[in-house]
From TrEMBL:
UniProt cross-references to PROSITE patterns, sorted A to Z: PDZ
Taxonomy, superkingdom: Bacteria
Coiled-coil residues: none
Species for this entry: Deinococcus hopiensis KR-140
Protein name: Serine protease, S1-C subfamily, contains C-terminal PDZ domain
Gene Ontology annotations of biological process type: proteolysis
Entry keyword set: Hydrolase, Protease
Domain PDZ: 343-433
Molecular functions (GO terms): serine-type endopeptidase activity
Listed Pfam families: PDZ_2 (PF13180), Trypsin_2 (PF13365)
InterPro entries: Chloro_Bact_Ser_Proteases, PDZ, PDZ_sf, Peptidase_S1_PA, Peptidase_S1C
Keyword Protease: yes
SUPFAM superfamilies: PDZ domain-like, Trypsin-like serine proteases
Length: 448
């Protein structure tokens, strides 16, 4: 029943009522007109300053206002649904490691270094029903990015749990800044894997949801967009201590210290990346990184390619693919280290005398039976010492890979890092001053 419908009753005298209404309307028409005009002007002036309901919206804009409101609510509801469904798959990771802090003057008084406990926090997420957790290598690594100390204690805590449980390392990938750990003592119903997406299908402007524990504030969520899908940044830890240049996802979703290892999700709730780094101008001065609207995540496809190797690592480390060469140009680094470098570090006169190109990676040795050997690459036949280093002579110089220039071992690794067994790369090689293309196919030895 219409609530505004009057119940049937006796007929009313229509004509007298009509006459009285007409008389009143003549007296009030001017006042009503002015009031309505004033309301119209007020609504125009205040329209952008106060909320306006659909009842007061101009007819032509009602549909647009309703559509915008519905869109906002849909996005909010989508975020809430994803958080409710997949946040239980997030884990809070804490580490403890005993270290000895050396007193620089302690040797004078026979004092030993003071033992302290270093603590760290990070994030991770379940990737399968077996309880495997993906996180960043640097979350569980030792001091300075070194291998984790055997004394390092790793604990993980799932959502709504009061206490954490110990976890052990299954596999490490320092060059990718990835690690796989597995908790001990969790019940099956506490393991909530988050589905993995396809980072190759990402588009700039796409929604991105970051989960993690910024500054130790566990189980936090932020939202933004994918700002870039092809950002090239150094990631991980190589033999020289520097990261390998890799493709990363850039996002403006707030990422801070403690978010490391947490998932970056799309609007369907699938993991598209693993949060790993931030760009922090203030951190360069203070030493504590803070979000500046630019964060980076490792594409999930990189992790998916690596998962089988991490699961089979038995607690050890896996490395980026190799083609089987040793760099032939090395210099003395700090603390007596031998560091491989590119030809751009030599003087122009030195390169001219040796008949070498302006830039490139000198091949010192080729491993027998390796992809490089099978492709016919040639190592040096001799060596030439110079002040501070040594260079191999008579061999090949790799100057490019798949169209990109090469001047260091990291350049070569960057092009190989996402490759699988059976993939091929094309090297541009200089031999005795002549350039040629060489196709190299990766085999099982590339991943050992």
């Amino acid at each position: 029943m219409n609530v505004f419908t009057r119940k049937p009753g006796p007929a009313l005298p229509i004509l007298p009522i009509w006459l009285r209404i007409m008389g009143r309307m003549k007296r009030r028409v001017l006042a009503v007109t002015l009031v309505l005009l004033g309301l119209g002007l007020g609504a125009t002036v205040l329209r952008d300053a106060v909320p306006v309901s659909d009842a007061w919206s101009p007819t032509g804009e009602t549909a647009q206002v309703q559509a915008e409101a519905a869109s906002r609510l849909q996005n909010e509801q989508n975020t809430m649904d994803i958080v409710r469904r997949y946040e239980p798959g997030l884990v809070y990771i804490s580490t403890e490691q005993e270290v000895v802090e050396q007193n620089p003057m302690g040797w004078m008084f026979g004092q030993e270094g003071q033992r302290e406990v270093q603590r760290g926090v990070g994030s991770g997420f379940f990737v399968n029903e077996g309880g495997d957790i993906l996180t960043n290598y640097h979350v569980v690594a030792g001091e300075g990015g070194g291998a984790p100390d055997p004394s390092t204690r790793i604990q993980v805590r799932v959502m709504n749990a009061k206490e954490g449980v110990p976890a052990r390392i299954i596999g490490l990938a320092p060059q990718y800044d990835l690690a796989l750990i597995r908790p001990e003592g969790l019940s099956q119903n506490e393991i909530k894997p988050i589905p993995l997406g396809d980072s190759a299908r990402l588009g700039v402007g796409q929604k991105a949801i970051a989960m993690g524990a910024p500054f130790g504030l566990d189980f936090s969520v932020t939202e933004g967009i994918v700002s870039s899908t092809q950002r090239q940044i150094p990631i991980g830890f190589s033999a020289t201590g520097q990261g390998i240049t890799q493709k990363a996802i850039q996002t403006d979703a707030a990422i801070n210290p403690g978010n490391s290892g947490g998932p970056l999700l799309d609007s369907s709730g699938r993991v598209i990346g693993i949060n790993t780094q931030i760009y922090s101008p203030s951190g360069a001065a203070s030493g504590v990184g803070q979000n500046a609207g630019i964060g980076f995540a490792i594409p999930i496809n990189t992790a998916k390619n690596l998962l089988p190797r991490l699961q089979a690592a038995k607690g050890g480390a896996v490395s980026a693919p190799r083609i089987g060469i040793q760099p032939g140009l090395v210099v003395q680094g700090g603390q007596g280290q031998i560091v491989p470098v590119g030809l751009s570090t030599l003087t122009a006169e030195g390169k001219r005398q040796l008949g070498l190109p302006d830039s490139g990676l000198v091949v010192g040795k080729v491993t027998p039976g390796s992809p490089a050997a099978n492709a016919g690459l040639r190592g040096g036949s001799g060596t030439q010492d110079f002040r501070g280093g040594q260079v191999a002579t008579g061999g090949d110089v790799i100057v490019g890979i798949d169209g990109a220039p090469v001047d260091a071992l990291e350049d070569l690794q960057a092009a190989l890092i996402d490759k699988r067994e059976g993939d091929s790369v094309t090297l541009k090689v200089s031999r005795a001053g002549k350039a040629r293309d060489v196709k190299v196919t990766l085999d099982g030895s590339s991943f050992q």
